[in-house]
Design a protein that fits this description.
The protein is of the alpha/beta class. The protein contains 11 helices and 16 strands.
Length: about 350
C-alpha cells in the first residue's frame, strides 16, 4: 500500500489477524502518516472481519508500546506502523506487530552530492527505518567513488544493520574506530547530531526528501546544543530538590537507573522525588513548583528537544554527574538507552 510517499506492506499482518481470529485491533500511526488513517482502516476492515481502533496519542517510536489499558477496550492485537521492533523489549502485554513504512524517495542524487564533503575513505553508513532498503544502493555509489562503505549491526535495541534511533547510536559507535566519517541517509537533525555528539567523528547528511546535503549546519547545531546543555548544568549547581523522571512507555523505562540516581542524590544530602508519566511536557510538569531540577531517565530527547520550553532545568543522568562533581564537562557524553 502506498501512503504519502511510503510503502506499507500489511499483507502478512492481515494473514495474522485472520489466522488468530482477532476481532478488535488497535492501530498506532506516527504523526506524519495520520493523514492516511482512514485508508489504512478501510484496508484492514475490508481484508478481515475485525474492527480497528485508532490510538490518537502521539507515537514516537517502537518504544511507545501500547499498554494494558487497551484490554479494557477489547483490543487483542496492536499494529504499529512506521517503526521497526526493539528486539530486547520483553513482556509486551498485548501481541504487537511492527510494520515499517519505507520511503519511495530515491537516494542517489543526495548521496552523490555528499561525496565531496566526506572525510577520509572509510565511511560508516547509518540511517533510520524509512531508508533501510536503500543501503545496498548507497554502498554501490560509495564504492564507485573508490570509498570503503562500512555498515554495522547495533546492540540488542536495534533490529536492522545500519539503523540508528534517536536514543541509540550503537550501529555507528560499534565502528567508530574503523571509519573516518559517517554518512547519514534521512531527514531531520536529531539523529545525525546525536551521532556527531556521541562519536566525535564528522557526520554528513544526505537528505533524499530535499536532495540536499548538510555538514556545517550539524556542527553549528551541535555547538548550540552543547551551549544549552552547559547552561542547564550551570543553572542546576545550587539545586536542592530533584525530580527523577521514570517513563511509563515500555521501551523508555530505566527504573533501575532512576533508583540509582536517587541513591546518588541521597548520598550527597539532596532531596528527590520519583515521577512517573506517559508523556512529559512543560504543561504536565508545571505543578511541581518546589522542584529545582528534573533528571530524565525516560526518552533522552526530553531534555534536548524542548529545552527552551521548560522553566525548570532538565538534565540527563550524565549531566547530573557533572553537577555533582562525579564527571568533568570535558567527559560529556550524549545520553542513550542501550
Amino acid at each position: 500500500m502506498e501512503i504519502l510517499g511510503y510503502f506499507v506492506d500489511l499483507d502478512e499482518t492481515m494473514h495474522t489477524i485472520k489466522d488468530k481470529g482477532y476481532k478488535t485491533v488497535a492501530l498506532q500511526i506516527p504523526e506524519g502518516l495520520k493523514g492516511s488513517t482512514s485508508k489504512i482502516v478501510e484496508f484492514i476492515e475490508k481484508e478481515t472481519t475485525c474492527t480497528a481502533i485508532i490510538l490518537a496519542d502521539p507515537c514516537f517510536g517502537a518504544c511507545d508500546i501500547a499498554n494494558y489499558e487497551l484490554k479494557n477496550l477489547g483490543v487483542e492485537f496492536v499494529i504499529q506502523i512506521g517503526h521497526t521492533p526493539i528486539p530486547n523489549l520483553e513482556n509486551i502485554l498485548i501481541p504487537t506487530t511492527f510494520v515499517n513504512a519505507l520511503s519511495s524517495r530515491e537516494v542517489a542524487q543526495a548521496v552523490e552530492k555528499s561525496i565531496p564533503l566526506l572525510d577520509g575513505t572509510r565511511i560508516g553508513i547509518v540511517t533510520t527505518a524509512q531508508h533501510l532498503h536503500t543501503l545496498d544502493d548507497v554502498e554501490k555509489i560509495l564504492q564507485k567513488h573508490n570509498l570503503e562503505p562500512i555498515i554495522s549491526d547495533g546492540d540488542g535495541r536495534i533490529s536492522n544493520k545500519g539503523q540508528i534511533l534517536g536514543c541509540n547510536f550503537s550501529a555507528g559507535l560499534n565502528i567508530v574506530d574503523e571509519v573516518d566519517s559517517f554518512l547519514f541517509i534521512g531527514s531531520g537533525n536529531f539523529h545525525p547530531v546525536g551521532l556527531l555528539l556521541s562519536s566525535k567523528k564528522p557526520v554528513i547528511v544526505a537528505d533524499p526528501y530535499t536532495n540536499s546535503v548538510k555538514k556545517q549546519e550539524l556542527e553549528d547545531l551541535k555547538d548550540t546544543i552543547l551551549r544549552q546543555r552547559y547552561g542547564a548544568i550551570a543553572n542546576s549547581q545550587n539545586a536542592k530538590k530533584f525530580g527523577i523522571f521514570i517513563g511509563m512507555k515500555k521501551g523508555q523505562q530505566r527504573v533501575k537507573l532512576a533508583h540509582k540516581i536517587k541513591e546518588m542524590l541521597d548520598s550527597v544530602n539532596k532531596k528527590s522525588l520519583l515521577i512517573a508519566m506517559e508523556n512529559f511536557s512543560p504543561t504536565s510538569l508545571q505543578g511541581f513548583r518546589d522542584i529545582d531540577c528534573f533528571i530524565s531517565t525516560s526518552c533522552p530527547r526530553i531534555a534536548i528537544d524542548d529545552y527552551l520550553q521548560y522553566k525548570t532545568p532538565i538534565l540527563t543522568p550524565a549531566e547530573l554527574e557533572i553537577v555533582l562533581g562525579k564527571r568533568k564537562w570535558e567527559d560529556y557524553i550524549f545520553d542513550q538507552i542501550s
